[in-house]
Amino acid sequence: MASGGETINLDTLSAQQLSQVKKQLDEELEHLTSSFAQLHAAQSKFRECLRCIQDKNKSPALRENNSILVPLTNSLYVRGTLSSASHVVVDIGTGFYVEKEVKSAAAFYENKVGEVGASIKDLEVIVQGKTNNVRVVEEVLRQKMVGGGQQTPPS
Predict the structure, then answer these.
(1) How large is the greatest C-alpha to C-alpha distance in the chain, in angstroms?
(2) Entry pTM
(3) Of 75-79, 99-103, 141-145, 146-150, which range is least confident?
(4) How far apart, in whole angstroms, are the C-alpha atoms of residue 52 and residue 30?
(5) CB 76 within 8 A of CB 88
(6) Does the CA dihedral 78-83-85-89 come out positive or negative?
(7) Are 136 and 35 in contact (CB under 8 A)?
(8) Residue 135: pLDDT band by 50, 70, 90 thresholds?
(9) d(CA 89, CA 99)
(10) Where are the alpha helices (DSSP H) in 1-155?
(11) Model confidence pLDDT, tens digit, residues 104-129
């Protein structure tokens, strides 16, 4: 239960120590859950990029020399002309963009979706383990509180 993979017998801890362990586990669980949500969001973005690339060939509007709107931000678009229907610009991370052929870009995004999916599965196992640890600590803490309340001081 301790950081570093060390096992601690929870029965030997006081109620205050158990509360601290529970607080630490809750904080770790909150951080992991946030990371889990961020990974899901990233995977959705990659899937959307992949869908756009795959649908590109189906849309008659996306042909060379056609007028298009180019997104500069989430809410700002400028008019442009599509100069090449066989190449796309791919965001490879940290603000870097690379021009790729459509097949290469699709392979890139498929790979990203798979990598993020594997990370999500790994993180899901970790979150489940932490959740189980929190439940065990809560149960031991509850037993200590109930047991502590039943003891009467000697007269």
Answers:
(1) 95
(2) 0.73
(3) 146-150
(4) 33
(5) no
(6) negative
(7) no
(8) very high
(9) 4
(10) 15-56, 102-150
(11) 999 999 999 999 999 999 999 999 99
Taking the C-alpha atoms of residue 40 and residue 31, their distance in angstroms, rounded to an integer, is: 14
Of 64, 70, 105, nearest in space to 85 by CA: 64
Amino acid at 59: S
- CA 23 to chain centroid, in Å, comes to 22
141 with 12: CB under 8 angstroms?
no
Q: 3-33, pLDDT tens digit by residue?
A: 456 777 888 888 888 889 899 999 999 999 9
Q: Which two tokens stand for residue 18?
A: 């158990």
For 150, the token pair is: 């039943």
Residue 26 token pair: 């809750």
Tokens of 83: 């100069």
Question: Interhelix angle for 15-56 vs 102-150, to 10°?
Answer: 160
| Six-digit token string for 10 | 């929870």
CA–CA gap between residue 112 and residue 46 (Å, rounded)? 7
Q: Give the span between the Cα atoms of 62 and 84, in whole angstroms.
A: 9
> Residue 1: what residue type?
M
For tokens 């951080």, name the residue.
31
